[in-house]
Backbone:
């Protein structure tokens, strides 16, 4: 995996922290929380998308695609969180309640589970690759 620079790593960590603060504060009905979460999600997802895998391991490539899907879901959760503040999509009240209102929680949960799974599996696969390459030497 291509490593991030020091500044990119800081942006990545701050973005993750802002996502946690934004999601937690939104449950406490703090009005700027969706904006904090959205900025954090953009920082986190963009820095994670910059990390590339240049190897040939098919499993790691598949896991990276799943991780990119979770990044997109983080961004969708941010959009739904912003839409939760008001009906800016112009939907009828019933449609808004059915499809938008507090649905960001479900999307965020799916994204977080995918992120945890892929992070754990990629670390395991990279470790396994390092062990097999050291045994070949």
Residues:
């Amino acid at each position: 995996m291509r490593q991030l620079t020091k500044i990119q790593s800081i942006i990545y960590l701050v973005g993750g922290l802002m996502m946690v603060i934004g999601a937690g504060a939104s449950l406490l009905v703090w009005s700027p929380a969706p904006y904090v979460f959205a900025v954090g999600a953009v920082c986190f997802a963009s820095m994670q998308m910059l990390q590339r895998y240049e190897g040939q391991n098919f499993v790691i490539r598949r896991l990276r695609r799943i991780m990119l899907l979770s990044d997109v879901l983080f961004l969708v959760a941010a959009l739904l969180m912003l839409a939760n503040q008001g009906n800016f999509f112009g939907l009828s009240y019933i449609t808004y309640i059915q499809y938008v209102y507090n649905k960001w929680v479900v999307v965020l949960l799916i994204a977080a589970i995918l992120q945890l799974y892929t992070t754990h599996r990629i670390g395991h696969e990279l470790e396994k690759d390092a062990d097999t390459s050291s045994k070949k030497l």
In short: The longest helix spans residues 104-136. The chain has a mean pLDDT of 90. Helices lie at 6-27, 33-50, 58-83, 93-99, 104-136.
